[in-house]
Write a structure and sequence with these properties.
157 residues; mainly alpha; N-utilizing Substance Protein B Homolog, Chain A; globular; two-stranded antiparallel ribbon
Length: 157
């Protein structure tokens, strides 16, 4: 797809990577399988041709590796213990917080919008609102994102 001379295929590939990574992280949370085994299964059993494979792999391996620090950022923003959060929502939050803290090349609003879209697709009926609120609180509390968040959107003054 081309808009104003720019191709949007890389964005779609990254969105697909997030979707597959969410499914893989969900499986990781519910099983005793390690990330490498889940990755192997995904490459064998799923159509990964339109997926940003490097990004899928990064999310699948980096999030479990940083689990304690990610959960440490998430827990203070929740209205209940992290253990009580639905596994899909937990995986979305972990992915969003990973991106907010580790992928400063991805705009804050893109991260939140992608997480909300995943929650609408895979989560409970109103989980997208909860995801949005938690990631917004974490994003606003992240000094690395402060200038970006304060900057007005196009058309805002």
């Amino acid at each position: 797809m081309t808009v104003n001379g720019k191709t949007h295929a890389p964005r779609r590939r990254r969105s697909r990577a997030r979707r597959r990574a969410l499914q893989a992280l969900y499986q990781w949370q519910l099983t005793d399988l390690d990330s490498a085994e889940i990755e192997r299964q995904f490459f064998e059993e799923h159509n990964m041709t339109q997926v940003d494979l490097d990004y899928f792999t990064e999310l699948l391996h980096a999030i479990p590796a940083r689990l304690a620090s990610l959960d440490g950022l998430i827990e203070p923003t929740l209205d209940r213990p992290l253990a009580m959060i639905d596994p899909i929502e937990k995986a979305i939050l972990r992915m969003g917080v990973y991106e907010l803290t580790q992928r400063l090349d991805i705009p804050y609003r893109v991260i939140v919008n992608e997480a909300v879209d995943l929650a609408k697709l895979f989560g409970a009926e109103q989980s997208h609102r909860y995801i949005n609120g938690v990631l917004d609180r974490i994003g606003h509390g992240n000094p690395l994102r402060a200038a970006e968040i304060r900057r007005p959107r196009a058309g805002e003054h």
